Amino acid sequence: MDRRVLVAYDDSVQSTEALEFALEEFADATLVVLTIVDPAEANTRRAFSMPTFASEWYEEAREDADELLAEATELASAAHVDIETELAVGRPPKTIVEYAKEHDCDHIVTGSHGRSGVSRILLGSVAETVVRRSPVPVTVVR
């Protein structure tokens, strides 16, 4: 039986460390690297936007996500491990958990997120929420 391991991947150092951990510990599994475009990030800048801001923001966010997934593919290639890459849109904790459920993932690997201070208090920790809501085991890499 082939294990499916979901790796949540963003532009944080913790996320890169989580991917490196997964490449080493789960090299025999099917590794799925998921990057999420969070529409909530656009809302913080909307007050100063022009009418086309949302579509421009999304295109830019998608390009950034594609670059992140290319970086993940390079890391995996250097480790001689094949990965699948996926891009989703939504709130990160919910999207990670839903993806794991809908795609029969057996495990989730995530970095301890880089939020701190007021941002962490208001938005919470992605890793903490995933651990609480996940139907499968979660490894949080620090």
Automatic annotation (TrEMBL):
Belongs to the universal stress protein A family. This is Universal stress protein. InterPro entries: Rossmann-like_a/b/a_fold (IPR014729), Universal_stress_UspA (IPR006015), UspA (IPR006016). SUPFAM superfamilies: Adenine nucleotide alpha hydrolases-like (SSF52402). Residues 3-142 form the UspA domain. It holds the Pfam family Usp.
